[in-house]
Task: inverse folding
């Protein structure tokens, strides 16, 4: 019997000055996107702006994108800044396919995000 | 012998033999489908393309041979393992196969509701993302009976990709579509491969589509693989039957006179 490679995702929430930084790494798929959703919505409940660092995300599926979209909508309703940092070209391709690259605020450094606050 | 667990192949088929009653439909078929690429299975009607597809989906048990998918031989696998593999497959059937009593959105969401515990909001957003990908967002609430042929195919594709499958099977994607809609669908298939890491298996005899989308082509005739290769290799094949297909020539009929007379006259 063959073996399948298990995917994994790491998700660390850090408090920076004036905003929360959520560091994501690995593969965000159906198995892990509920945890991402929980982290994003939990962070936004505290009333802090949220920046999601996606530099180490090797893959994100549509359930992960859906969590990012729901977070964006929640942040917008609460008038909180919300952005994606260092998005990889793979993840950007998925966003572009769904035209979400035009909707999300994309940043290349935390300083750039701080300037928007 | 290679199999899908040891190589970079998503699917490895070896020595596949399929019978329907006394009729042999596939004979000693072996085929490797590389991960992350588009494999087009082409051939004339009745060649055995759909039977090969059904074997890869685990819908037809072969008389012998193996069908190794993502590291598991689904011919000998337990029902549990076959179900696990099937969750990584998406299938867009030729006629759409949408449930007529459900809206487009409900059809698309069905697998997520059956196989995941995702939050309702996530399911709604995922559905709309997939509808947007196939340019069908405005048709979310329509019923299948209200869709055109092209819309039905796109809705079927949205349903096939809702779980972000590793393997996407597409049966005759452009059949019955006007050239412009067929070209859009071809482009979408290429985009899905490039962005969603999908290995895509397309069964078709539409030549225009084949050479637009294929990374590899397997030519099936009379239940056997005639040749496999890149589009360039297939185009330059010296096999007269393949050249006949590419030049849209009718199949040369080899008649066994006695057998044919017996069929017509009896006795």
Result:
């Amino acid at each position: 019997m063959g073996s399948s490679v298990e995917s994994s995702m790491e998700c660390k929430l850090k408090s920076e000055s004036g905003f929360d930084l959520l560091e994501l790494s690995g593969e965000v798929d159906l198995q892990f996107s509920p945890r991402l959703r929980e982290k994003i919505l939990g962070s936004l409940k505290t009333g802090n702006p949220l920046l999601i660092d996606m530099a180490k995300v090797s893959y994100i599926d549509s359930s992960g994108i859906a969590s990012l979209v729901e977070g964006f909508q929640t942040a917008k309703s609460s008038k909180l800044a919300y952005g994606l940092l260092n998005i990889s070209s793979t993840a950007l391709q998925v966003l572009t396919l769904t035209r979400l690259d035009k909707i999300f605020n994309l940043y290349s450094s935390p300083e750039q995000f701080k300037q928007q606050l | 012998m290679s199999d899908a667990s040891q190589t970079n192949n998503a699917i490895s088929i070896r020595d596949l033999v399929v019978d329907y009653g006394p009729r042999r439909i596939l004979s000693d078929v072996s085929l490797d489908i590389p991960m992350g690429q588009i494999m087009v299975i082409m051939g004339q009607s009745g060649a055995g393309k759909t039977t090969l597809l059904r074997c890869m989906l685990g819908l037809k048990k072969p008389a012998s041979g193996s069908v190794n998918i993502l590291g598991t031989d689904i011919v000998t696998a337990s029902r549990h393992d076959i179900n696990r593999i099937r969750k990584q497959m998406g299938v867009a059937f030729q006629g759409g196969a949408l449930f007529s009593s459900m809206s487009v959105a409900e059809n698309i969401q069905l697998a997520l509701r059956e196989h995941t515990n995702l939050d309702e909001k996530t399911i709604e957003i995922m559905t709309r993302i997939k509808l947007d990908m196939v340019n069908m967002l405005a048709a979310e609430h329509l019923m299948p009976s209200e869709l055109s042929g092209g819309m039905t195919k796109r809705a079927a594709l949205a349903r096939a990709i809702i779980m972000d499958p590793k393997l996407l099977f597409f049966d005759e994607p452009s059949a019955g579509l006007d050239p412009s809609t067929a070209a859009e669908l071809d482009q979408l298939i290429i985009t899905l491969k490039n962005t969603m890491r999908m290995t895509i298996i397309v069964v078709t005899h539409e030549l225009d589509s084949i050479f637009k989308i294929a990374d590899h082509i397997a030519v099936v005739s009379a239940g056997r693989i005639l040749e496999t290769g890149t589009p360039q290799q297939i185009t330059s094949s010296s096999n007269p039957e393949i050249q006949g297909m590419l030049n849209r020539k009718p199949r040369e009929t080899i008649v066994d006179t006695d057998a044919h007379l017996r069929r017509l006259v009896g006795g």
The interface with chain B takes residues 1-4, 29-30, 33-34, 37, 59, 61-63, 65-67, 69-70, 90, 93-94, 96-99 of chain A (CB under 8 Å). The radius of gyration of chain A is 14 Å. Strands of chain A lie at 9-16, 19-28, 50-60, 82-85, 106-107. Chain A is about 40% helix and 30% strand.
